[in-house]
Write a structure and sequence with these properties.
heterodimer, A: 11 helices, B: 75% helix, globular
C-alpha cells in the first residue's frame, strides 16, 4: 500500500493529491498519514465507522483545517496551509455533513454566491454601475438558473433556503458547490436523512455530475448501497488511519473492514450470514 | 437608475423647500439627521450585511474630521492654532470637497491598517479592536496638540457645510451601499454573515470581502466627520465617542439586519425622537433620558422583533421601485 505514494510521473495529473497528511487535535490523532489521489473523472468513496476521521479528511482537503503534516496538491499546485477560498479557486468544492446553506437567501442567491469568484464584478465596476457589472450580474443569474435547471431544481429557485425541505436542502447545497465550477466535488454524507426514493434520485444526480459534467467526486457516506453502487474505488478509514483501499467488492470482503465496522466477535457472524 | 433619479430629484426638491423655509436651527437639525443616515447606511455594510460588528465609526469620523478641518482652516490663523504643522501644509487653505475626500481617504487607510490583521479572525475581535481604535485616536489627537490643539479642540472652523452638501454625500452613500448590497459582491457579504465557513468554501475570501465592507464604511464615516466638523464649526477629541457608536448600532439593529430602508427609517425616527426629548429632559431635569429611551427601544426590539423593522431585505415596495428590470 505504501507503493502508491512512491508513484513516478503519473500520466493524468491528479485533480487532488493528498500525500501523507496527518491532523492532530491536542493529543488525538484524528488523521494519520492519509494519502488520497483523485484523478480527473474519478468517483471515490471514503468510508469508515463514526470517528474514523472522514470529516477531518474533508476539512483538511478543503483548507478548512491545516494539516499537522503532509502536503496537499490541487491540480498540481501545492496548497498546503492555504485558506478554503484558495482551494475553491483551484477547483475544490464541497458540501457539509450538517447542511450549511445561506438560510436567509433564496436558492437562486445561494447558487449565485458560488459563481462570484469566477464571474463576479469588482468593487469599482459595481459601485459605478459599469456595463461590465451588468454583464457579470446577468451572466451569474443566467448560469445559476441554468445549473438549477440541469439539476431539476428550477421549481425551488425563489424559495428561501431556510424554508426548504431537508432533502431539497441537500440537493441545493450540491448545486451551490457546482456553481464554483470545480474539478473535484467532495460530498460529506449526501444521503444522510434521505428516504430511499430521494437517495435513488441522489445516485442519479451524482452520476450526472461525474459522468456528464466530468467532475471528479469523492464521497463520505454511511449508506453502503449507495457507496457500493457508485464508487470505483473505496478508501476505508479507522481511527484516523487507512485500513484498506480497493474496489467495492475487494473492500466488502476484507476481513479487517468487517471487523472495524462490526467488531471482532462479529467476524464469525458475518461469515455465517 | 431612472427611478433612482426620480427619487434623487424628489430629495433635492425637499432640500430646496427646507432651505427656503427652515430657520437655522431646523436646517442644522436636518443636516445632522442626514449625516446620521450617512453613518448608519455605511455602517450597515459591515454590521448589517456582512455580519461583522464594528464600533469604529466615531474613530473614523474623528480622523476624517480633523484631517478635513486642518486642510480647510484659514491659513492666516494656522500658525497660531497649529504651530507644529509643516510649512507646506500651513500655507494651504483648501475647499471643502477635496478636504472631505482626503479626510475620508485617511479614515479608509486607517481602516485597512486595522482591518488587515483583525478581519482574518471571526468573532468579537473587530468589536474589541475598533473600540480600542476609538480610544487610541482620542489619545493621539489629545497629544498631537501641535496639530490639533489637543483637548481644546479646533474651533472657529469655517462653516462650509450646508444641507446641500450633506444631502449630496448622504445620497452618494446610500447609492453606493444599495449597489453593493444588490450585487454579487453584496451576496458574498451576506453569505459570510449567513455561514462563514460555507462562504469561504464557495471561494469567498473572508478577509478581502470583509475589508471592502469595512473600508467603504470607514471612508463615508471619515467624510461624515468632515461634514459634521464644518457644520458645527468645532471638533474636539471627544466629540465622537463610544456613545455615538452605541447610538448608530441601535439604529441599525432597530432598522433591520442589513436593510438600508430600515437603517434610514430608524435613523430618522430615533434622531428626531432624541432631539424632541431634549426640552423634556431639561424641563424634568432628567438629563440622559433620551439615551435611556434609546436603550429601551433596543431591548424591546430584540425581544419582540429581533430581525429589526425590515429584517435583512428591503421592503418589497422599495425594492420593486428601484430594481433594474432585465430587458
Amino acid at each position: 500500500m505504501s507503493a502508491r505514494s512512491d508513484r513516478v510521473s503519473p500520466v493524468p495529473s491528479p485533480v487532488l493529491d493528498c500525500r501523507g497528511v496527518s491532523k492532530a487535535f491536542g493529543g488525538v490523532q484524528a488523521l494519520q498519514d492519509f494519502t488520497l489521489r483523485v484523478d480527473p473523472g474519478a468517483l471515490i468513496g471514503l468510508i469508515g465507522p463514526n470517528g474514523a476521521g472522514k470529516t477531518t479528511a474533508f476539512n483538511v482537503l478543503t483548507g478548512v483545517l491545516r494539516p499537522s503534516a503532509g502536503r496537499i496538491f490541487v491540480a498540481g499546485t501545492d496548497l498546503t496551509g492555504k485558506r478554503p477560498h484558495v482551494f475553491a479557486r483551484h477547483g475544490v468544492a464541497r458540501t457539509f455533513q450538517n447542511i450549511r446553506l445561506f438560510p436567509d437567501m433564496t436558492v437562486h442567491e445561494n447558487v449565485m454566491t458560488g459563481l462570484h469568484m469566477r464571474h463576479g464584478a469588482g468593487l469599482a465596476a459595481t459601485v459605478l454601475g459599469l456595463p461590465a457589472f451588468h454583464r457579470s450580474e446577468d451572466r451569474i443569474a443566467e448560469r445559476a438558473a441554468e445549473l438549477l435547471g440541469v439539476l431539476r431544481l428550477s421549481d425551488l429557485i425563489d424559495v428561501r433556503a431556510g424554508d426548504l425541505a431537508y432533502g431539497d436542502q441537500r440537493r441545493v447545497e450540491i448545486a451551490r458547490a457546482l456553481a464554483t465550477e470545480p474539478r473535484v466535488l467532495l460530498l460529506d454524507e449526501p444521503a444522510a436523512g434521505l428516504n430511499p426514493h430521494e437517495s435513488n434520485a441522489l445516485i442519479g444526480m451524482i452520476r450526472r455530475i461525474n459522468g456528464d459534467m466530468g467532475i471528479a467526486v469523492v464521497l463520505v457516506e454511511h449508506d453502503m448501497r449507495l457507496v457500493m453502487e457508485l464508487c470505483q474505488r473505496i478508501h476505508v478509514l479507522d481511527h484516523g488511519r487507512e485500513l484498506a483501499v480497493g474496489t467495492p467488492a475487494e473492500v466488502q470482503d476484507d476481513p479487517r473492514v468487517v471487523e472495524a465496522y462490526l467488531g471482532t466477535s462479529a467476524k464469525a457472524a458475518h461469515r455465517h450470514a | 437608475m431612472g427611478r433612482g433619479l426620480v427619487a434623487l430629484g424628489l430629495g433635492a426638491a425637499a432640500v430646496a423647500v427646507m432651505q427656503a423655509s427652515f430657520n437655522d436651527y431646523l436646517l442644522t437639525l436636518a443636516s445632522i439627521i442626514l449625516i446620521n443616515v450617512m453613518l448608519t447606511t455605511s455602517l450597515s455594510l459591515t454590521n448589517g450585511l456582512t455580519g461583522l460588528f464594528s464600533l469604529g465609526h466615531p474613530a473614523f469620523m474623528t480622523i476624517g474630521g480633523y484631517v478635513a478641518a486642518i486642510l480647510t482652516y484659514p491659513a492666516r490663523r494656522k500658525g497660531f492654532m497649529m504651530p507644529e504643522l509643516p510649512e507646506a501644509l500651513a500655507v494651504q487653505q483648501w475647499d471643502l470637497l477635496p478636504s472631505l475626500l482626503v479626510g475620508g481617504t485617511a479614515a479608509a487607510l486607517i481602516a485597512v491598517l486595522v482591518g488587515f490583521p483583525v478581519l482574518r479572525l471571526r468573532g468579537h475581535y473587530l468589536a474589541v479592536a475598533t473600540l480600542g481604535l476609538i480610544i487610541i485616536v482620542k489619545v493621539l489627537v489629545n497629544n498631537m496638540d501641535g496639530y490639533t490643539r489637543g483637548g481644546l479642540g479646533l474651533n472657529g472652523l469655517p462653516q462650509l457645510t450646508n444641507l446641500w452638501w450633506v444631502f449630496g454625500w448622504t445620497a452618494l452613500s446610500i447609492i453606493v451601499c444599495w449597489r453593493i448590497k444588490h450585487s454579487s459582491l453584496g451576496r458574498t457579504m451576506m453569505a459570510l454573515r449567513e455561514n462563514y465557513m460555507a462562504a469561504q468554501c464557495m471561494g469567498v475570501s473572508a478577509l478581502g470581502i470583509s475589508l471592502i465592507a469595512f473600508v467603504t464604511g470607514a471612508f463615508f464615516a471619515g467624510v461624515a466627520g468632515g461634514l459634521m466638523a464644518h457644520l458645527i464649526t468645532v471638533i474636539t477629541p471627544g466629540t465622537y465617542s463610544v456613545v455615538l457608536a452605541f447610538n448608530l448600532v441601535v439604529m441599525i439593529v432597530v432598522g433591520g439586519n442589513g436593510s438600508l430602508t430600515g437603517a434610514i427609517v430608524a435613523t430618522v425616527i430615533l434622531s428626531i425622537a432624541s432631539e424632541a426629548l431634549r426640552p423634556v429632559e431639561e424641563a424634568l431635569e432628567l438629563y440622559g433620558l433620551s439615551q435611556v429611551i434609546l436603550a429601551l427601544c433596543l431591548i424591546l426590539m430584540l425581544i419582540y422583533r429581533p430581525g429589526g423593522l425590515f429584517g435583512s431585505a428591503e421592503p418589497a415596495l422599495v425594492r420593486r421601485w428601484f430594481t433594474r428590470r432585465s430587458p
